[in-house]
Amino acid sequence: MNLYDFSVKKMDGSQQDLSDFAGQVLLVVNTAPGCGLAPQYKELQELYESYQDEGFVVLDFPCNQFANQASGTDREIHQACSLNFGTTFPRFAKIKVNGPEADPLYQWLKKEKSSLLGKSIEWNFTKFLIDRQGRVVKRYLPITPPSKLKKDIEKLLKIRA
After folding, report:
1. What is the bridge-based pairing of β-strands 56-62 and 25-31?
2. Alpha-carbon distance 154 to 138, whole Å?
3. How would you classify the pairing of strands 127-130 and 25-31?
4. Is 61:95 a contact under the CB 8 Å cutoff?
5. 103, 87, 68, 74: which is closest to 146 by C-alpha?
């Protein structure tokens, strides 16, 4: 099993097969525009702009499970992120990342790479780096600035699918 076996809900309610991103290096992030870590959106955008021509994509999954920090509709969240942080990377419908209603994608991600605190997602802006074959390579804590991921991303980009 790999990331390409999953499909996720887009903001318009339609489904997106993650196999559409096959062969690319991906950073999967659960986000929230009301979070104190929301300035990371700018660094995520910088990574996306720096490496997208080499096959790198940030996949943004808003989540309202942590202190109600993504309380708006999918459209409101998208507008807030686009206007306030200038994001242009793919953003999907709000999901749950923990508990019995956790999205199957996040159930798999957590199974593949747990953290020091176990399999739960600790907070908004937990990041998973995915290689070109759809495998989870690394998990980063919410407080890890996206700029600190550059070396890991560059290393994966050098490996062709």
Report:
1. parallel
2. 14
3. antiparallel
4. yes
5. 87
In this prediction, residue 116 has a pLDDT band, given cuts at 50, 70 and 90, of low
- Per-residue pLDDT reduced to its tens digit, 54-71: 999 999 999 999 988 888
Instruction: Give the chain's count of helices (H) and strands (E).
Output: 4, 6
Task: Produce one character per residue of 93-110: b if its CB has 16 or more CB atoms within 10 Å, e if not.
Answer: bbbbbbeeebbebbebbb
Task: Report the distance separating Cα 146 and Cα 127, nearest Å.
Answer: 9
| pLDDT tens track for 5-46 | 999 999 999 999 999 999 999 999 999 988 889 999 999 999
Contact 1, 108 (CB under 8 A): yes
Spell out the residues 6+ positions from residue 67 whose beta carbon is closer than 8 angstroms to its own.
34, 35
State the catalytic residues: 35
Three-state DSSP at 61 gives: strand
Is the pLDDT score of 121 beyond 60?
yes
